[in-house]
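**User:** My hope is that you can spare some time for a protein that puzzles me. I have put the entry right below:
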Amino acid sequence: MLVLTRRPGESIVIGDGIKLTIVSIGPGRVKVGIEAPPTVRIDRQEVHSRIQQEQSTDVLAAVSATASGVGEPNTMVSSSSETGIYHNRIAEQLPANPPPASGNPAGNGISKFRAPRKSR
């Protein structure tokens, strides 16, 4: 591990496109600004660990289902050989007549209202 000392406002450059800048230093806390290309994913350690754990769980579930030979392949869309119509297996589990969403005269259960995203 390389350990460097930096003061607020000073930067560290990694490779050709990543720049770390010390924004501020407080009691027990350091704020770091990160400039990187949009193709580089940046996560906190706890978020990265959770994503890795979920991905490994998904892979293990898919491998065990395939190895046991139980059920269908792990796909969301399948084709019916009799009708040639594609369908979603999850849609088959939904109630036949969902209640109409508020503000939607079509009554298909889909609301046109979308809450605004929280600012970062």
